[in-house]
Amino acid sequence: xxxxxxxxxWCRYADDGLVHCRSxxxxxxxxxxxxxxxxxxxxxxxxxxxxxVYCKDANRRGKYPNVQFDxxxxxxxxxxxxxxxDKVLFCGFTPAVSPAAMKAMRETIRELxxxxxxxxxxxxxxRTINPLLRGxxxxxxxxxxxxxxxxxxxxxxxxxxxxxxxxKRFNRSRLQAGQFLERVAQAQRALFVHWELGMTxxxx
Length: 204
Hints:
By secondary structure, the chain is of the alpha+beta class. The protein has helices at 24-40, 99-111, 122-140, 149-166, 174-187, 193-196, and strands at residues 10-13, 16-19, 69-71, 74-82, 89-97.
């Protein structure tokens, strides 16, 4: 790319790559050229992940079949965004955490099996989850942080399920457990990373 296409911005991380082209024709030609170059190195592009995408926004209003792509855990697609200087809403082509990344985060929480760890205290639960949350919020929360809310809600509901099992006074009632945790979140916001940032989410 540096030798033959110095005018095209591009980036790569491990085996994921992204190239910005000025037209569909240029993108298709480059795709064929890269396929040939990789074949010389006994490599090949992923047959389904490799595609040409139109970055549709307020200034690019054409109609194309592909208008979004995933890269490094982010989904880039047309979204309604707010201009900072005058708060005007417009269509931008911006990143946010991808659905696949959110699915993986929820699966990580499930694999901890915290709902059944009734021997733990709420502080123990926080110490287990907070390093994960800190990393996810630090990475994915940089762009469209509200997109992370379903994952944070999943964390809260996991803690609700744990509390309903642990404390006999709730008689396994998630409603009562959720009300209890709402009060805890208000009184001890620093207990969980997302609570401290104001992302208390939903407990019911």
